[in-house]
Amino acid sequence: VKMLQLLAKRACITNRQTFNFSKSIVRNSYYLVIPELPPTVEGSDAVFHSESFPSFEHASSQAVVSGGLRLCSQIDTAIQQHIEKLAHESSKPTFESIFHPIEDYNIPFETGYYTIRQLALVRQRAFAKLFSRFDSHFSAHREFRFQDPVLFNLIR
After folding, report:
1. Alpha helices, H only, 15-155
2. Distance (Å) of CA 131 to CA 7, 35, 66, 128
3. Which residue segment(s) compose the domain that 144 sits in?
4. Between 3 and 141, whose confidence is greater?
5. Do 49 and 7 belong to one domain?
6. Backbone conformation region of residue 16, classed left if phi is above 0, alpha if psi is from -120 to 50, else beta
7. SS3 150
8. Contacts for 9-15 with beta carbons within 8 Å, 24 or more apart?
9. Does one domain contain both 3 and 65?
10. Fewest CB atoms within 10 A around its CB: which of 44, 57, 73, 83?
11. How many domains are there within the chain?
12. Range with the lowest mean pLDDT among 40-44, 50-54, 109-113, 141-145?
């Protein structure tokens, strides 16, 4: 948030530049902030997969942070692409065509959340503080996906 405020202030400062020529030149400046995926840490794939039980012996704080953030970004991207695809289709979407894929995308997301929660309960020293940070992060992602105006218009 602080970084975005700094960028906004910087954009306001550099928005209008006047040179000592016969005309004033106006330049509009925009900053595009692209979220970065954290690098894949060894062991994060063993912790965050929903096909079988997670491998807790590979769980380190770096693997949990990397895997959790990566999981949030991937799920948000998949859901956003699904909603955009439905918005561009000519046929009227049904409840099943909207929400069944979202629920399918939600399975790894919820599995990752409960994996971090389980680690926080079992190995409290290492993961309790980490889970408290992720709890708010995951809940924000849960709420954000249903606040999309395109999704709202599809349902309406």
Report:
1. 44-47, 61-88, 95-122, 124-144, 149-155
2. 30, 22, 13, 5
3. 37-155
4. 141
5. no
6. beta
7. helix
8. none
9. no
10. 57
11. 2
12. 40-44
